[in-house]
Design goal:
35% helix, four-stranded antiparallel beta sheet, alpha+beta
Length: 182
């Protein structure tokens, strides 16, 4: 009896080797809907990531300049190209122990043509042998490829003591650690 049952079960088992046209159309339609919803958010995410990348690069360059000034016991410049996100760290007075270019970053190193950089204060930022600077400088980083309301623009501030801070100029709550103090 079990033999007949197993033969009947095998007789009704049919393997499917493809999909119907209706299933294909539904799949393509769902893919289109999901893409239409996701692409704008993804574009904003990429643009804001480019802002963060440029900001971190500039912050790291400023910290390298400060560390090199202290290490070499000399004045070191951080020069930012405001046309793009490239920068150069080098000694103010070139000697055998202090070259004109210590470290640099080109705009092609992870940069984007839509990221804009605006400097308020001195450019180049000059760190003395104690790691401090002569005046306050701030660098605003934004991305022109997305609307201002969607942009998460950032600011890098260099205090007189040489401290480097990244803050969000859109935060108005003074107790928030991302707040840009005046």
């Amino acid at each position: 009896m079990s033999r007949i049952f197993s033969r009947q079960t095998l007789a009704y088992t049919v393997k499917q080797k493809g999909m119907t046209a209706v299933e294909l159309v539904i799949g393509v339609a769902l893919l289109g809907i999901v893409s239409a919803i996701a692409v704008p958010s993804y574009t904003e995410f990429i643009a804001n990531t480019q802002i963060r990348t440029a900001t971190e690069s500039i912050r790291n360059g400023l910290q390298v300049a400060r560390a090199e000034a202290i290490k070499r016991n000399a004045s070191v410049n951080f020069t930012l190209n405001t046309g793009d996100t490239s920068w150069v760290v080098g000694c103010t007075t070139t000697t055998a122990n202090c070259p004109a270019t210590i470290q640099s970053k080109t705009a092609k190193d992870g940069g984007s043509g839509t990221v804009t950089v605006a400097v308020t204060g001195t450019n180049p930022v000059i760190f003395n042998n104690l790691g401090s600077v002569s005046g306050l400088s701030q660098i605003n980083i934004d991305n022109s490829s997305i609307p201002a309301a969607k942009s998460k623009n950032l600011r890098v501030r260099v205090g007189v003591g040489g401290n480097v801070q990244v803050c969000d100029p859109n935060i108005s709550v003074t107790t928030d650690t991302r707040f840009c103090a005046v």
